[in-house]
């Protein structure tokens, strides 16, 4: 859904799912995302970010996309949430979360550098949304409230990622990588709706 909204906002055709690569026109781009996956392996058995970039590289090697195609494209990277959900559900006391955040963001940064090395000149990476507000997590409060303690995880994640992106852009002559602030966008949307209507907004989201 995230990519659908992005394509709609940019007024372009929705990229084709990679699963349909052999039967569809790929000139509008490809969506390599696989629901439930992340930077590392998660609870979902599917291609992680590294494997998805492998698939992107293969299309370039097969000349499905040439140098000009890649340079003029916008590469959107939105990942990390499923990794933290997997970690939280596995280790509920959050022991070792600080080291995990550093490891995950460093791996994500390496993947961004690799995407750039493939010729991409316009890369957008999303900051992590407030995971304490996700249904899988907020069920602990019966969807009454976000779990604020867990929202410290994306705050730390985003702080490190912003610094890493700044450092990456210093490596090249122009700023290739931009960030999209999903964290504050999510919180703003939740707060606006809570002010304008009665009832439990988080519960309503789950039951839509």
From TrEMBL:
Give start-end ranges for the coiled-coil region(s). Answer: none
Question: What molecular function does GO assign, one term?
Answer: hydrolase activity, acting on ester bonds
Fetch the Gene3D superfamilies from UniProt: SGNH hydrolase
Note the InterPro entries from the entry.
GDSL, SGNH_hydro_sf
Q: Which UniProt keywords apply?
A: Hydrolase, Lipid degradation, Lipid metabolism
Parts of the chain that traverse the membrane: none
Q: Which residues form the signal peptide?
A: none
Pfam families per the UniProt record, alphabetical:
Lipase_GDSL
Keyword Transcription regulation in annotation: no
Question: What Gene Ontology terms for biological process does this UniProt record contain?
Answer: lipid catabolic process
Q: Which family does it belong to?
A: Belongs to the 'GDSL' lipolytic enzyme family.
- According to UniProt, the name of this protein is Putative triacylglycerol lipase
The record lists the organism as Lupinus albus
């Amino acid at each position: 859904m995230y990519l659908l909204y992005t394509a709609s906002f940019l007024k372009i055709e929705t990229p084709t799912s990679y699963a349909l690569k052999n039967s569809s026109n790929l000139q509008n781009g490809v969506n390599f995302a696989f629901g439930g996956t992340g930077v590392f392996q998660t609870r979902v058995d599917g291609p992680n970010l590294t494997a998805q970039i492998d698939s992107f590289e293969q299309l370039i090697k097969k000349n499905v996309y040439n140098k000009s195609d890649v340079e003029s494209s916008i590469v959107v990277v939105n990942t990390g949430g499923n990794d933290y959900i997997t970690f939280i559900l596995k280790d509920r006391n959050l022991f070792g979360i600080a080291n995990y955040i550093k490891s995950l963001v460093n791996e994500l940064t390496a993947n961004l550098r690799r995407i750039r090395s493939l010729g991409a000149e316009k890369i957008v990476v999303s900051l992590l949304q407030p995971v304490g507000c996700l249904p899988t997590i907020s069920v602990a409060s019966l969807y009454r409230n976000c779990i604020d303690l867990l929202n410290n995880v994306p705050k730390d994640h985003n702080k490190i990622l912003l610094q890493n992106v700044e450092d990456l852009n210093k490596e090249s002559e122009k700023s290739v990588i931009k960030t999209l602030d999903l964290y504050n966008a999510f919180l703003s949307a939740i707060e606006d709706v809570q002010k304008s209507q009665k009832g439990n907004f988080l519960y309503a989201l789950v039951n839509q």
